[in-house]
Amino acid sequence: FLAEIRGVSRSEGRKRAGVWLERLGLTEWSDKRAEDLSKGMQQKVQFIGTVLHDPELLILDEPFSGLDPINQDVLEEIVRDYHAKGTTILFSTHLMHQAEKLCERVCMISNSKKVLDAELKELKAAERKGVVAVEFEGPDTWIRGPEVDHVEEVNGVLHLILRDGADHQAILARGVQSEARILRFDLVEPTLHEIFVRHAGADAVGDAGMPVLAGASGT
Description:
The structure is a single chain. The strands form two sheets. Strands 1-2-9-3-4 form a five-stranded mixed β-sheet. Strands 6-7-5-8 form a four-stranded antiparallel β-sheet, covered by helices on one side. The chain has two domains: 4-122 and 212-217, P-loop containing nucleotide triphosphate hydrolases (Rossmann fold, 3-Layer(aba) Sandwich), CATH 3.40.50; 126-203. It has helices spanning 10-23, 39-51, 69-84, 96-102, 120-127, 168-177, 192-200, and strands at 57-61, 88-93, 105-110, 113-119, 131-137, 148-154, 157-162, 181-187, 212-217. It is α+β, with helices and mostly antiparallel strands and 219 residues long.
């Protein structure tokens, strides 16, 4: 039905539905009602209904919600396939790592207001001066000072999120003078989560524990 109302014949729609059900591992559940399916399965069924007519513009709302890591990877591969053939993709998500992997451009929204709208590469390059990755042995008092807004841990490495205009060299000098043994002190590209917090503030994090982000990918 969803394919028919978008101009696809009934026979072709059934054929496409069969292909998608197999690709997303739902063939054995094809005779079940939606309410009998798990949340993840329902999410995949909704996705199939969205792409049956092979759209040139694909709009997805929290597409990875309810999916386990394996099915997230499957859906990510499908999104990449659509992007590769020129489809424009717009999706909203709370999952920063998914947006970071898939998007070419991001629009960050906090409390119903747009706080950022830029190409991902340009945004991360511009924000690079504001994050320092550090690894060290010994006391940690030197990493906390007027230059540092807050500290986050990313893949086991501490990221110092600097205040606007802060001099990272002052932090390094303080570390050298301390009893700590500094193993790493690098300016790095921030994660999308770090960028959001820097611009919107920690208070902007919603009930789900993550900020809302709208991302776009494609032509």
